[in-house]
């Protein structure tokens, strides 16, 4: 298996994953475990506005957050394991984090920079 991302970039990606990945996963799943889903119907922000424009129920915003958080975690862990197939998943998660205001946006930008500019030449990386 090839490692498409340099080790230093993987450390930065892991740090970036901690905030948006785990936070988004928790925000998406928490209302279902706590029974507070109906208190979030009036929530505003880019996620809810996007869902409303698409004509989807508010639960779609929670599902999108949970899936994006899962993509962050799975993508970065896959890259740590040396699986090049995790690269598109981590790239999608980093780009999707730009929808989340605050620290996740910053982490998404750092993640995109790491994924795009710190790639290894697959031929020079030992298996």
What does this structure look like?
Residues 38-42 have low confidence and may be disordered. This protein is elongated. Helix 1 packs antiparallel against helix 3 (59-80), helix 1 (7-34) packs antiparallel against helix 5 (103-117) and helix 4 runs antiparallel to helix 5 (103-117). The chain contains five helices and no strands. Helices cover 65% and strands 0% of the residues. With 127 residues, the chain is mainly alpha-helical. The protein has helices at 7-34, 46-53, 59-80, 87-96, 103-117.
Helix count from the secondary structure assignment? 5
Low-confidence stretches: 38-42
- Major sheet characteristics: none
Cα(first) to Cα(last) distance is 5 Å
Rg over alpha carbons: 16 Å
Secondary structure tally: strands:
0
Counting helices, strands and paired strands, the structural category is mainly alpha
Helix content: 55-70%
Cα shape: elongated
Average pLDDT, all residues = 75
- Tell me the fraction of residues in β-strands, as a range: under 5%
Order of helices and strands: HHHHH
